[in-house]
């Protein structure tokens, strides 16, 4: 490095070009953009010594009426106040009210009339279905005294006033009774509800947001009681759930928990297969077969059965029930833990589901566990539903349905596997690493989409779905209209058209850039795991993630979070010029010995070649001057100018000029191709832009002659325009990059 100093110095003198873009502080620390660290959340990104969180335990009885699709429930919630302040009231979420008459979502949804439109999409279609959704709250009572508690409903939020202030360290139990009419998921694109199968007249219920649930109260924003408008999902407290589900006796039920009364609800044969599945690690075992399910479809049992489930330390509870269900399961070995991977699907899902679903659950559990923490729950279900992908603890609802004759394309299979991996993956984000989805979609969807892609890459390398969630996959979005684009760090419900990309693909692509190009897999994986370990079963915020990734890696990432998460800038690096130099030999230089020159003058003759668009004009020769004595100042020692000249003899010096046209600073990946056909890839950290965010020059010394240079040859940085990334320059209209890649 030292030996190159003079060369760099000489050439740097000429590189100080005028800056046409404003300095934007892209490398400044985030500082005041992040919340001030405190004893709850530290500057290292960890839960602090005073970290606390609330807990809510649920004891629920619920019944599904298969005749009129009415859900009736009663629950006892025991709320533990661990906050350092007392509480006069608590807030619960009534998500079903999102579809009650006069709901806020419909009121605030923009719409317009066109001269012709399919009935399904008519702007006020939901009103034409005459659906009376929403919770009917029958009672709210103090569980100890049995007295009514005053409550108030504000759209999707319910405030319950407590009889006395609930002090720190105290708990309070209360009962809520409710009912609601289930919604037809075919009419309303909703997370829970039922699907009706006209051929056999049966229903398949997937129950979600089906009970009044505690809001999160935390150190960061007090009550998270922002209204549910349909997009920004949920913020929920951890607790233990005991849930009794009463359904027609011919139904099969799965839920967010461990079945407690298998011997009561299963037949002897099912019980035997269930036990076998728990010990089978190589392939799924059928607990209820397709033939049996088809027989059950014809029954209309008037008897009831109650399935009991228990779940420990979960943030929510979902279940699925139908007489159409086929059921298979297998055990997964995670360092001695053996959770059961299970699938529930009607015959309409086969043959695809029997073949792929439970294996996809297994693959997701294995890969996610290796990157975060070992899956801590005893079961993980994948439930077949039409047109859906939705996640709950230990249970998710997934689309991917073959045609009526059972045939399906590779695309259908790839999409189905992708959605299962994704939704099972949500067990980790946000079910275990429990971020606030109402506020930050990216914290669960983005991190999860990243690991979804990693799982496909490891376990399904041929999948056509790998390209989304990659830097390459996000370029079209990134170069889009900035006037309607929002940065990732914005509220979920206000994201407009950016919702999908900002929630899923952009953060996933950004994390891919971070892993593969900025940090390297080793540092990234260690830090990402650290984040998951620190925040498992807790409530992390964005700063906790940002800080942990730096804290665990010694990589300053403020520029990265600033650019990728707080702005709508994109990556677009231009390789403006490449200049080729050689140092004049001593021999040639002899005749010029007496000529007086100042630094810089000697490259004046190179100006004629300044606009060279290829290497055909050869290298420009430059002179390395003797170092003047006054340069050394107080030093008595000197470097040997002759030694330096000797080192530089015969070497090729390449000066690259790079322009940051997209604004988002980025590492620079340089692929050198030499005239002998060999290649070399160099990665320069993004800090190359720290002195000048818009344009930099850098000199490289190479033994061999270069035939071409490509910036970001694999498009690993998300560069939106690769046409200006190559030298020699492309002829107008043709992409040199593409041409070179082709060769
Ligand atoms: Zn998701």
Characterise this structure:
The protein is α+β, with helices and mostly antiparallel strands and about 750 residues long. The protein is built from 18 helices and 31 strands. The chain has a 7-stranded mixed β-sheet. A 6-stranded mixed β-sheet has the order 16-19-20-21-23-22, sandwiched between helices. Helix 7 crosses helix 10 (about 440-460) and helix 12 packs across helix 13 (about 520-535). The two termini are about 35 Å apart. Zinc ion binds next to helix 10.
What is the CA-based Rg, rounded? 32 Å
Average pLDDT figure: 91
| Bound small-molecule species | zinc ion
Work out the helicity level: 10-25%
Give the N-terminus to C-terminus distance in angstroms. 35 Å
- Low-pLDDT sequence parts: 1-19
Number of strands: 31
- Largest sheet strand order: 4-7-2-1-13-17-15
The main β sheet shows up as: 7 strands, mixed
Instruction: Give the amount of beta strand, in percent.
Output: 25-35%
Task: Give a short overview.
With 743 residues, the chain is an alpha+beta fold. Helix content is 24%, strand content 26%.
Name the features.
6-stranded mixed β-sheet, alpha+beta, binds zinc ion, single chain, 7-stranded mixed β-sheet, 743 residues
């Amino acid at each position: 490095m030292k030996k190159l100093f003079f060369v760099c110095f000489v050439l740097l003198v000429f590189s100080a070009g005028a800056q046409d873009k404003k300095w934007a502080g892209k490398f400044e620390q985030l500082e005041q953009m992040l919340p001030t660290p405190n004893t709850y959340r530290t500057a290292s990104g960890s839960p602090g010594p005073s970290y606390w969180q609330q807990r809510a335990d649920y004891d629920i009885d619920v019944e599904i009426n298969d005749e009129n699709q009415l859900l009736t429930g009663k629950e006892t919630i025991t709320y533990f106040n661990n906050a350092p302040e007392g509480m006069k009231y608590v807030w619960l979420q009534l998500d079903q009210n999102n579809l009650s008459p006069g709901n806020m979502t419909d009121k605030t949804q923009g719409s317009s009339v066109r001269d012709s439109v399919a009935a399904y999409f008519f702007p006020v279609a939901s009103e034409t279905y005459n659906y009376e959704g929403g919770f009917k709250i029958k009672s709210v009572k103090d569980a100890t005294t049995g007295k009514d508690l005053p409550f108030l409903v504000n759209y999707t939020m319910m405030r319950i006033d407590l009889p006395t202030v609930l002090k720190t360290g105290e708990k309070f139990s209360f009962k809520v009774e409710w009912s609601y009419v289930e919604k037809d998921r075919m009419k309303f694109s909703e997370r829970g509800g039922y699907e009706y199968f006209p051929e056999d007249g049966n229903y398949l219920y997937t129950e979600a947001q089906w009970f009044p649930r505690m809001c999160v109260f935390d150190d960061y924003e007090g009550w998270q009681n922002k209204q549910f408008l349909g997009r920004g999902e949920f913020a929920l407290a951890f607790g233990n759930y005991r849930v009794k589900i009463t359904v027609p006796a011919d139904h099969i039920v799965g839920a967010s928990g461990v079945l407690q009364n298998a011997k009561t609800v299963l037949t002897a044969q099912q019980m035997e297969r269930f036990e076998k599945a728990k010990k089978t690690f190589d392939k799924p075992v059928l607990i209820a077969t397709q033939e049996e399910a088809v027989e059950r479809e014809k029954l209309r049992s008037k008897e009831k059965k109650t399935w009991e489930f228990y779940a420990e330390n979960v943030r929510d509870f979902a279940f699925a029930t139908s007489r159409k269900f086929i059921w298979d399961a297998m055990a997964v070995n995670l360092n001695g833990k053996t959770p059961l991977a299970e699938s529930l699907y009607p015959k309409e899902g086969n043959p695809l589901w029997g073949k792929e679903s439970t294996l996809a659950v297994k693959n997701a559990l294995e890969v996610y566990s290796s990157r975060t923490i070992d899956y801590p729950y005893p079961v993980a279900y994948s439930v077949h539903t039409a047109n859906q992908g939705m996640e709950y603890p230990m249970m998710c609802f997934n689309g991917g349905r073959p045609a009526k004759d059972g045939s399906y394309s590779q695309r259908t299979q790839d999409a189905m596997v992708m959605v299962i991996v994704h939704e099972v993956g949500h067990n980790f984000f946000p079910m275990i690493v429990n971020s606030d989805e109402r506020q930050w979609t990216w914290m669960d969807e983005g991190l999860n989409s990243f690991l979804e892609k990693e799982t496909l890459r490891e376990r399904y390398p041929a999948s056509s779905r790998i390209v989304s969630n990659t830097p390459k996959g996000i370029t079209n979005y990134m170069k889009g209209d900035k006037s309607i684009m929002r940065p990732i760090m914005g509220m979920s419900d206000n994201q407009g058209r950016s919702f999908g990309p900002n929630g899923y693909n952009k953060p996933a692509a950004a994390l891919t850039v971070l892993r593969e190009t900025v940090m390297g897999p080793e540092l990234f994986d260690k830090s990402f795991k650290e984040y998951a370990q620190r925040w498992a079963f807790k409530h992390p915020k964005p700063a906790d993630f940002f800080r942990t990734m730096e804290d665990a890696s010694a990589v300053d990432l403020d520029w990265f979070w600033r650019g990728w998460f707080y702005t709508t800038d994109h990556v677009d690096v231009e390789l403006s010029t490449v200049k080729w130099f050689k140092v004049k030999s001593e021999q040639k230089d002899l005749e010029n010995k007496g000529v007086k020159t100042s630094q810089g003058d000697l490259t004046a003759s190179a100006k004629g070649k300044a606009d060279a668009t290829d290497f055909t004009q050869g290298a420009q020769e430059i002179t390395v001057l003797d170092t003047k004595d006054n340069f050394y100042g107080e030093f008595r020692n000197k470097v040997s100018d002759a030694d330096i000249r000797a080192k530089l003899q015969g070497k090729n010096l390449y000066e690259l000029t790079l322009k940051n046209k997209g604004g988002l600073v980025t590492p620079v990946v340089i692929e050198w191709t030499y005239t002998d056909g060999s290649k070399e890839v160099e990665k320069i950290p993004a800090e190359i832009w720290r002195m000048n965010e818009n344009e930099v020059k850098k000199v490289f010394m190479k033994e061999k002659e270069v035939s071409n240079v490509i910036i970001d040859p694999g498009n690993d940085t998300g560069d939106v325009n690769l046409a200006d990334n190559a030298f020699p320059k492309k002829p107008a209209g043709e992409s040199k990059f593409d041409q070179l890649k082709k060769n």
